[in-house]
Design a protein that fits this description.
The protein has 106 residues and is α+β, with helices and mostly antiparallel strands. The protein contains three helices and four strands. A four-stranded antiparallel β-sheet has the order 2-3-1-4.
Length: 106
């Protein structure tokens, strides 16, 4: 099992607009290919201009297969264009995490 942890930072004052754009155009398409995320959340303290999502995959091959299908979907391409045109996002950080040996995956 691997976890794809992504943090996006938006320009101040635009996070609600970015999340609304994603909810309308990105969320349905991404869920269709990646399934349900483990977490999708806005940061409440600290860097309040950021949001995080975590996706779970069986392994790197599963992640690569599902993400390739997502990237090929015209709906996702449309969302990415809308997001880029809006210009709300300033930064993106991705991490691939593997669970500790004692962590019970359920």
């Amino acid at each position: 099992m691997i976890y794809d942890h992504r943090t996006y930072t938006c320009r101040p004052g635009t996070i609600k607009k970015q999340l609304a754009l994603y909810a309308e155009y990105g969320w349905p398409v991404q869920r269709r290919h990646l399934g349900e995320p483990l977490l999708y959340a806005a940061t409440e303290t600290g860097d309040v201009n950021s949001y995080v999502h975590i996706w779970v995959y069986e392994d790197a091959a599963d992640r690569a297969r599902r993400r390739a299908a997502l990237q090929a979907d015209p709906g996702w391409v449309d969302y990415l264009k809308r997001s880029a045109d809006a210009g709300f996002q300033m930064a993106q950080r991705n991490k691939i995490l593997t669970p500790a040996s004692f962590f019970a995956q359920g």
